[in-house]
Amino acid sequence: MELLREAIWQAILSVPQSAWWGVTWFGDSGLLLPAAVLIALWLASSRRTWPAAALWIVIFGAASTLVLVSKLAFLGWGVGSARFNFTGISGHTMLSASVWPVALWLLASRGSHRLRLGLAVFGWLLAACIGVSRLAIYAHSASEVAAGYLLGLAASAGFLAMQRHMAHPRLRASLVALSLLLPLLQMQPGHAAPTHGLIERMAMRLAGTERPYTRDDLLRPAGAARLGYRVPVL
Known about the structure:
Largest sheet: none
Number of domains: 1
Number of helices: 10
Shape: globular
Radius of gyration: 19 Å
Strand content: under 5%
């Protein structure tokens, strides 16, 4: 098992860092939070689909809240796990696994059930690649990415399963695609949204601290600093 993990990690490292940075951008909050809002608006475009819109808002809102709470708990009070190298749920991964499958499903809202399901599966695969990119650029540990992926998967899969008993809109794919590209007018590819800095300032204000907790703060007391942040636990 150790050899397999090492082989996987070496395969990840063999991909140029610039490529992984390009992949990770597709999970940025500046792109996917507006996309999540647009999904809600499309779902609410007809009175008969309001229940589906409400369901999406509740499920996505709950998942996003869990990510925020986990980050605030660590940054403000140091709540995490040195054993699992865990400082909070990966927001990029959660957003990717929750938004992309539903966005692609909505893109094929006029298509067959098989097509919609196929695009949703593609969305989950894309989210997995984005999660791997977070490891490759040393932004998260494996536990944080896994938590984000499972949470996002639960959110999108739960929504898609429950909405099958509700009316869903039948939209033109071109209009949905154009709307999902709107965030690009404000955010250029490769430029990260300042979300993490905002959460840090929020955590410091809530906890009354002068600086946020860091991964080094978490690992050092447990004698785990020697593990090194730049070696994610696969």
